[in-house]
Amino acid sequence: MAASSILQELDWRGLVADMANREELERLLAPGASPVTLYVGFDPTADSLHLGHLIGLLILRRFQIAGHRPIAVAGGATGMIGDPSGKSAERNLLSPEILEANIKGIQGQLRRFLDFDSKTNPALLLNNADWMRPISVLDFLRDIGKHFTVNAMMAKDSVRSRMEGTTGISFTEFSYSLLQAYDFLHLYETHGCLLQAGGADQWGNITAGIDLIRRKQDRIACGLTTPLLTKTDGTKFGKTEGGAVWLSPERTSVYRFYQFLIQVEDAQVIQLLRYFTFLTQEEIKALEAQHAASPERRDAHKRLALELTKLVHGETAAADAIRASEILFGGSLEGITQAQFDEVIAEVPNSTLSHSILGQPNAALPEILIAAGLSPSKGQVRKDVEAGGVYINNVRATDAKSIIGAEHLLFGKFVLLRKGKRNYALLKFEG
């Protein structure tokens, strides 16, 4: 049987960790076969998705581009329980109010990545609470629970690892795989969904749904898992000292999102281009050759950061992040827009001074640098200026007696100061 182009593409990109019922999936995806409906679930543990969610979301987008029908499921029901997969301790339960706010946040993000208006294969955005809430506990136990043995559930990695640990696992989280299995069954019965995709840690939950569909409907369903994304040292990719790298600019600024990507490890950058971008094989191979020949140019890193920032935040925001990066690495402020400067403001320490001191002796460069926290004394300011290490709006200061005046203001109220290569401070003049 000829392999489908979508599976060939996913294989080349390294996006296939495992498949359940591979022969059936290859048959369903064979050239000339009818489009397949697939789904990926996203539990609303926060009001934003993070970088780790993006592989699953882009799997849906890749399948839609290939002509198949994607379903993104926001887990209003499963999010109330908590998936034990990949967790060493019990999750904190979310209140209904927080859960609802989280669902609205991630639904808005899911809508940006999929085409819901396609004439041929429009995406669906569903909430599993809509079909879980009407079911009584007794009906669920009779109709769904009777198809699962405790032996099989305890054999799942997510359960076994918790039982072998010190914290154990609650019945609540123990039951999670039944809920996700029922999601798959419901989506098969209502939308003809025959494929569930997810991270490698979802294998047990996915196969539980496949087994339930077989038992209840005598139909072969399929599963596809993607690799768990880690750094070369084995730690989770998409984590920083400040926490996760979020898709929401309110949680992770566009500048920091861009900078995280441009600073990824050299050994990973080509893999990430395959995982996260829609560049062609030829384009990625060309970047791989450039990276091997001249890694110091960081062409692959720049392309990864550009493509992914555009994908998540749009072209304008990506351009603003790049411009802010240039400024914070000493570039000229000429022609900068307010939006671009706002990215800079968010990244440097800032202080507020009275507008009335502009042009006055107490706005001389030594006083200003001390007020901004960039220098401990007037004498040190003079030494730094003489050494060529002080900059006003990224223009080198040549006179330690310079006075900051209205002519220095950016957007009518800001002055950007720098000492050395990377020590920035922002002064805001008000009142």
Summarize the structure.
Helix content is 44%, strand content 13%.
Keywords:
19 helices, 44% helix, single chain, 13% strand, elongated, alpha/beta, 431 residues, six-stranded mixed sheet, five-stranded mixed sheet
Note down, in words, how this protein is organized.
With about 425 residues, the protein is an alpha/beta fold. Helices cover about 45% and strands about 15% of the residues. It is built from 19 helices and 13 strands. The protein has helices at about 5-10, 20-30, 55-65, 95-115, 130, 135-145, 150-155, 155-165, 170-175, 175-190, 205-215, 255-260, 270-275, 280-295, 300-315, 315-330, 340-345, 365-370, 380-385; strands spanning about 20, 35-40, 70-75, 125, 195-200, 220-225, 240, 245, 350-355, 390, 395, 415-420, 425-430.
* Rg calculated over all Cα atoms: 27 Å
Tally of helical segments? 19
Q: Which strand order spans the largest sheet, edge to edge or round the barrel?
A: 1-6-5-2-3-4
Structural class from helices and strands? alpha/beta
- Work out the number of β strands: 13
Report, as a whole number of angstroms, the end-to-end distance. Answer: 75 Å
Helix content: 40-55%
* Poorly predicted spans: none
**Nearest-integer average pLDDT:** 91
Name the overall outline: elongated
Largest sheet: 6 strands, mixed
Strand content: 5-15%
